[in-house]
Amino acid sequence: MSTKEIVEEKIDVSELLNGQSEIILYNDDVNTFDHVIETLIKVCDHTAEQAEQCAILVHYTGKCTVKTGEFKKLKPQCLQLLDAGLSAEIQ
């Protein structure tokens, strides 16, 4: 008698479709709009308008995708956002 082992691996569907990850920025009660906007411009290369729109979305909806791309390119940017005191993660 032999035993077969089934291994289940969780894989994000969006990663399978396009190999892209995204940085999600979350709302907090600590950072000002100006700080969030300045940080997005500096770290994510956003325009002022784009950064402002993301800050507004984060404020009213609780989160916003601020950057998409390959995980290895997003990781340093996400770490910079975290170092600036923002709440973010890569999905």
Structure characterization notes:
- It is a single chain.
- The protein has 4 helices and 3 strands, in the order αβααβαβ.
- The protein has a 3-stranded antiparallel beta sheet.
- The longest helix has 14 residues.
- Helix 2 packs antiparallel against helix 4.
- The mean pLDDT is 89.
- It has a domain of 62 residues.
- It is of the alpha+beta class and 91 residues long.
Helix-strand category: alpha+beta
H/E element sequence: HEHHEHE
Estimate what percentage of residues fall within beta strands.
15-25%
Strand order of the largest sheet: 2-1-3
Number of helices: 4
Q: Which parts are unreliable, with pLDDT below 50 for 5 consecutive residues or more?
A: none
Shape: globular
Estimated radius of gyration: 17 Å
Mean pLDDT across all amino acids: 89
Strand count: 3
Summarize the amount of helix as a percent range.
40-55%
N- to C-terminal separation? 42 Å
Q: Main sheet?
A: 3 strands, antiparallel
What is shown here, in short?
Keywords: Hydrolase, Protease. With 91 residues, the protein is α+β, with helices and mostly antiparallel strands.
Which features characterize this protein?
91 residues, alpha+beta, globular, peptidase activity, Ribosomal_bL12_C/ClpS-like, ClpS_core, protease
